[in-house]
Write a structure and sequence with these properties.
9 strands
Length: 224
């Protein structure tokens, strides 16, 4: 139920995930793709259906179990912490997706260097995060240019959830990408589609014209 409320919900399923998938290269047949922070496996399932050879990693053993069940014997799933060097061989992936995971970490040095290490030359990363220019959140005091731990609260399936994550200015994100050997190829700032507004008017009408998520497509340059 929780995964369904996320996968088919207005913000992940209707807003962020379509923008991520639009930036993933269209030819995936036979490509080795890592889904970093795979959660319950929705992105892994989509990548597998597109013909990719998928490895999913997540900090939660329960999520890894659910992702493996969801993908019905396809793919490889590993418990791993993005804050630590990844237990994966260097140069083994053509691409990486990372959906709303890095903003839970204050320091992006380790995960981005791990991504660069496990990618083959010319590899790509498509990652999303909270938008740095999103509306100020309760408890956010230090302004746009601070890297600051913030929190947001919402209700899902009748359960109130408070999530903590890090906001950082755009310049800090771009510097982290460059330091790890990546160049930005594309940026998407998703807005609700007409179809999503019709399906979830109460949730999404208020964010039309408001920055909510940002999606980056990065290319490995090899330069550091």
């Amino acid at each position: 139920m929780w995964s369904a409320a996320t996968d088919e919900g207005p913000f992940n399923g209707g807003l962020e995930r379509p923008a991520v998938r639009q930036l993933v290269p269209t030819i995936l047949d036979g490509a080795a793709v890592l889904d970093a922070g795979c959660g319950s496996g929705a992105q892994c399932e989509w990548l597998l259906d597109a013909g990719a050879d998928v490895t999913g990693i997540d900090l939660s053993p329960q999520m890894i179990e659910e992702a493996a069940r969801r993908c019905t014997g396809r793919g490889r799933f590993v418990v791993a912490d993005l804050a630590e060097p990844l237990p994966l061989d260097a140069g083994t992936f053509d691409g990486i997706t990372c959906s709303l995971a890095l903003h839970y970490l204050r320091d992006w040095t380790v995960p981005l260097r791990s991504f660069a290490s496990v990618l083959r030359p010319g590899g790509w990363v498509v990652l999303s995060s909270d938008h740095p220019l999103g509306p100020p959140l309760p408890g956010q005091h230090d302004g746009y240019f601070a890297t600051e731990l913030v929190s947001d609260t919402w209700t899902k399936n009748g359960v109130e959830v408070t999530q903590h994550f890090w906001r950082r200015p755009l310049s800090a994100a771009i510097a982290a990408f460059a330091d790890a050997g990546f160049a930005i190829d594309r940026i998407a700032e998703p807005q609700p589609s007409a179809e999503s507004l019709e399906r979830w008017p109460d949730a999404l009408t208020g964010i039309v014209g408001v920055p909510t998520f940002i999606v980056y497509r990065l290319l490995k340059t090899g330069a550091r």
